[in-house]
UniProtKB/TrEMBL annotation:
Keywords: Membrane, Transmembrane, Transmembrane helix. It comes from freshwater metagenome. Residues 137-161 are annotated as: Disordered. PROSITE patterns: LON_PROTEOLYTIC (PS51786). GO terms for molecular function: ATP binding; ATP-dependent peptidase activity; serine-type endopeptidase activity. This is Unannotated protein. The chain crosses the membrane at residues 47-73.
């Protein structure tokens, strides 16, 4: 048995490709051999950390996409040219008389309402700059169903169509009749006036609007006798009514009938716009009727848009959502926008570049302003 030195044994190890190093190996510091169990433990711990970090993200994602927020989004809606067609049908159609050819734009504007928003949708609308968020109850009151609100909006829209036609006829000095649409049971006029009678004069003064009847009656005191001229079944009649006391103001006279203005012309005006609600199209509808029944063009080559309620006497009233209607009008190409006087302040703060605001208080005022613009003159603006 031969004895070999440590140096010789080390040299043999180098030749075989293996070197055992004892550098730094002292008692208590030998390297721990890694086992399969410890590796699994470390992997599981990393997975647990990752899961713990992802859980809030997943919960937020599910919550944000599923849970609805108590807000509705308002934004620019579609605009409709009241002088044009929708799906091949005139927005404002007049049959039974000659209609003046019309061109240009008299666009009504709308507000788009989006409901049942999740959190992410609401944040997206808020950040867009084109939409705004309002409490849902401002659009859908808690005491009404969504269907009831939509039905009310549709009723307002239909009323705006009727008022628009009457306002246009008054402006054009075309005949309008005043019909009795209801008679209070056991009221002062019961037994004298019937539903369907046409009122001609009250107290000797000709009347053509419901407001004129109210003024004539309110000028009298309870117990006064008031002469009524009316037409029934085509025959003129006279009657006398002893007035009662008005329920909301006992010092004033009360007739107990509901008069409603009706067109008395040999042609029909029809509005063919569907799926739109609310009363704010009245002004633009009325302008379209006037434009079609009179020579020339009200727009005078301008792209005109606008909004506003209107009553039978032609008074223009305020509307909601003016910032979004201004955006919608400008994006459609409008350069002039008719603004109800009461909305001027808000409109000034939100007017897009390139859009001129024209302040209007009545149908007559709006027509005068459009004609002034067409002649190169100044028109009342929001200031």
């Amino acid at each position: 048995m031969s004895t070999r030195s440590a140096k010789d044994r080390h040299a043999d190890g180098e030749q075989n490709g293996f070197v055992a190093s004892c550098v730094g190996l002292r008692q208590g510091r030998y390297p721990r051999r890694r086992t399969f169990g410890s590796s699994v433990y470390r992997v599981n711990r990393r997975i647990a950390t990752l899961v713990a970090a992802l859980v809030p993200v997943v919960v937020l994602g599910v919550t944000g996409s599923v849970v609805t927020v108590p807000f509705a989004a308002l934004g620019p809606g579609p605009t409709y040219n009241t002088l044009g067609d929708v799906d091949g049908v005139p927005v404002v159609q007049i049959d039974g008389t000659d209609v003046d050819p019309t061109a240009g734009h008299l666009n009504m504007t709308t507000v788009a309402v989006r409901d049942q928003l999740n959190l992410f949708e609401a944040l997206g609308f808020w950040a867009s700059g084109r939409q705004g968020l309002v409490p849902r109850e401002e659009v859908y009151p808690p005491d009404k169903s969504k269907e009831e609100v939509q039905e009310g909006n549709q009723a307002d829209f239909e009323q705006s169509e009727s008022s628009a036609e009457l306002a246009a006829l008054h402006h054009l000095d075309l005949p309008v009749s005043l019909s009795v649409t209801s008679v209070a049971q056991d009221g002062p006029a019961a037994g004298v006036l019937n539903i369907g009678d046409t009122l001609v004069a009250v107290g000797g003064t000709p009347v053509s609007t419901a407001g004129a009847v109210r003024e004539a009656v309110s000028a009298k005191a309870p117990g006064d006798s008031l002469d009524i001229d009316y037409v029934r079944d085509g025959a003129p009649r006279k009657g006398s009514v002893v007035l009662g006391a008005r329920p909301d103001d006992p010092s004033k006279g009360y007739l107990g009938v509901t008069p409603e203005e009706q067109p008395d012309v040999p042609f029909d005006v029809k509005f063919n716009l569907a799926d739109v609600g609310g009363p704010s199209a009245g002004l633009m509808f009325s302008l379209a009727v006037v434009d079609k029944l009179s020579p020339g063009e009200l727009s005078n080559g301008e792209f005109v848009a606008g909004t506003g309620t209107i009553d039978a006497a032609g008074t223009v009233g305020p509307i909601g959502g003016i910032p979004y209607k201004l955006i919608a009008a400008r994006e459609a190409g409008a350069t002039t926008f008719l603004v109800p006087d009461a909305n001027c302040g808000e409109a000034q703060q939100n007017v897009p570049d390139g859009l001129r605001l024209v302040r209007v208080e009545s149908l007559d005022n709006a027509i005068d302003s459009l004609r002034a613009i067409g002649s190169g003159e100044d028109a009342p603006t929001c200031s």
